[in-house]
Amino acid sequence: MRPVRRKSLTFRLTVLFAAASTVVLLVLGLIVAESVEHHFEEQDMEALTGKLELIRHALAKVHSSKDLAAIPQQMDDSLIGHHGLVVAVKGPDGRTLFATEDAPFPQRLLDRVKTPEAERPYVWQVDDQLSFRGIVAEAPTGVQAWPPAVVAVATDISHHRSFMDSFMKTLWLVVIGGTLATGLLGWFAARRGLAPLREMKRRATEVSAQRLDQRLPVDAVPVELAELAESLNDMLARLEESFKRLSDFSSDLAHELRTPVSNLVTQTQVALSKTRSSTEYREVLESNCEEFERLSRMISDMLFLAKSENGLIVPGQESFDLADEVTALFDFYGALAEENGVTLRLEGSGLVTGDRLMLRRAIGNLLSNALRYTPVGGRIVVTVSVVRDSADADTIHLAVENTGEPIPPEHLSRLFDRFYRVDASRRHSGDGAGLGLAITRSILRSHGGDIEGRTGEGSNIFEMWIPTLIVTPRSTD
Amino acid sequence: MAGSRKIVSARELDLLRRRVTRAGKRIDLTAKEFALLELLLRRRGEVLPRSLIASQVWDMNFDSDTNVIEVAVRRLRAKIDDGFEPKLIRTVRGMGYVLEEQEDE
Asked: What region holds the HAMP domain (chain A) (predicted)?
């Protein structure tokens, strides 16, 4: 089997152009032919009915056999100068009373005399060359007792015929020529019209992994293609974004791993450079162990993020009060907050449907982040609120506000990027790898929510929200 | 070392009333401090990593990058080890905490 070939757009347009013009030319030609033919027929009929009336009139004046005998002479006189006109008259006795020479009336025409079709033109051919159009009619004589005479008149229409023949021939030539011409012009038009498409194609071939910043020209293309170009550009932008994220991911990972690993190597090499006491070895091992633990935590966090960004993490659907989670977390962080001289406060509550452990982790990361940056004597306020979106959907908001120096706006939006630190040089020993907020955001996004940071009066606010379906709260006792 | 034996024995740890005595002295612990001590006691001699402590005592099943556990252990120590000998809770660097099994001597 042959593979189905996709036809080019140019080919399609060419064929359509040609077909359209063929149909138009053909219809136009046929209408003209029809009206010319009709005009000829009208002309003929006018002449024929005139002649018929004349003969009928003459026959009506016949009152005796003598009058009848004079008819042929009268006919001859009145037909002088009428070229191409043939006449036959059958007398009341049924015999031919008068006939022009070579009056080749076919029997079929004469048979129509008593039918309603008698007055309608009848066309026939003689010897494949001559064509006639004729009518037949009864013509009563002045003598009541006699049956009416039958008169047939016809005119030679051979010249009309040949005109129509050549007209049709010309018409066909025009149609064929027109089809070819419009096909050719259509092909040129289609190629010219589709030139922007080829330009787009050319630009598209230039896009590669190294050159994802290439964009299609939206202003230069026709309106119809602009939308396509725009969506392609959007697609490219998304691709570029994810590609960049992917390459950032691996370079971040490499970068974040390099320092601790090289520290580990150096430390171990120094320890091995000479014989040391078992206490010294122990110290090195302990220190290495701490570093390994940090690395392993970072790797599992990275894995969590990677899974979550690929949509592999499906949160559970449990209904619970966010305030309860915050209370549990306050219990956990309480001692630390007390040591740091920071007070914790919770306001409001709200039922949420989601993954309890994941959301606990998300809020926990926010709290530990807040604790890290709240100065002594500061305060962290967690506010839970519910916004009713529709009859059966709520959005739960949870804001963590901590006193402290406001984060510069240029950092706010990037805080949730992995490994992002406001102060690159500031790395407390207690700090994580800078993945906490990224994990929080990915947890919220997997719940269909999100998070953003903003600054208040001498404070920073991180507000997260989760859309949630309303569940009828269980009755409390 | 009768005193140290006493505290590691469950008799000194009144589980119901959450009361602890060491060397005859009453020690007041918060609920979480008590839970932490109970965990260390139940698994004495075993080094407990921070993540295990966080999950058993606070039901926090994620790694917190803060020193919450250090603070909690330090507070517990201040209550049960400060002013007493020998010290019961030992830090194993890089691993976690252990409540030492005291040898009878």
From this structure: 191-244
